[in-house]
Design brief:
This protein is of the alpha/beta class. The chain has six helices and ten strands.
Length: about 230
């Protein structure tokens, strides 16, 4: 079963005379374990679509099914249960400035309530080393560069082993090598664990790693390119 199925999705912002449609009749199905990239100019609806699939916006019209559960009209408990199975990476790192890198990532585990609490620190340190921050584990965000902060946010999103990762411009603050390393990690998680990633990006450097590239313009899907095995 595909983890994400979208059918005839429409979305509007505002009300009355200023009401504006942002998503037009979008339908798509995302394969388990795949890395799908959403591209398109600013204002094309990429982030709106991402947040609708990720339970961060209310589905107004059409259908979004996540792990087989319909999100349109879903109650708070259903939405919270869905979010616990997801990981989110945003362009803004959204770290707690008073917490160290370790504590910020640990918070990601505690929110999801996964795993043995006695082993949480081991998992956190392992993930921070994977993103190249083994020597910054106990640093506060104020003592980290912008790229290092983003890597902490990526570690926080991945430490709970989410089934689906939604990423919005995750490599924007990273240099070439760091950005490629993060996307390769997501690709490996898909191959080894079946983790599904949907990523909004303008970063042409990472397109070769995608299994599928979808292009949006004015709220519509205008291109859908799948990589042949």
């Amino acid at each position: 079963m595909s983890p994400i199925v979208v059918e005839c999705l429409n979305h509007w912002f505002g009300a009355g005379e200023v009401r504006k449609q942002a998503i037009y009749d979008v339908s798509l199905e995302v394969d388990r374990g795949s890395l799908t990239i959403l591209m398109g100019p600013s204002g094309s609806g990429k982030t709106t679509l991402l947040t609708l699939m990720g339970c961060l916006r209310e589905v107004q019209d059409g259908s979004v099914r996540l792990f087989g559960a319909e999100l349109k009209g879903a109650g708070i408990q259903t939405l919270e249960a869905m979010r616990r199975r997801l990981g989110f990476i945003f362009q803004a790192h959204n770290l707690h400035e008073s917490l160290t890198a370790r504590q910020n990532v640990l918070a990601g585990l505690q929110v999801h309530g996964r795993g043995d609490p006695a082993r949480h620190n081991v998992a956190v340190e392992h993930m921070l080393r994977l993103v190249g921050l083994g020597d910054r584990i106990d640093y506060l965000p104020g003592n980290l560069s912008g790229g290092q902060k983003q890597r902490v946010a990526i570690a926080r999103a991945l430490v709970s082993n989410p089934e689906v990762v939604f990423a919005d411009e995750p490599t924007a603050a990273l240099d070439h090598d760091s950005g490629m390393a993060v996307v390769r990690m997501l690709k490996t998680l898909g191959q080894e664990r079946g983790t599904t990633t949907v990523m909004v990006t303008h970063d042409n450097r990472i397109l070769d790693l995608a299994d599928r590239i979808m292009t949006l313009e004015d709220g519509r899907i205008v291109g859908d390119q799948r990589k042949t095995p």
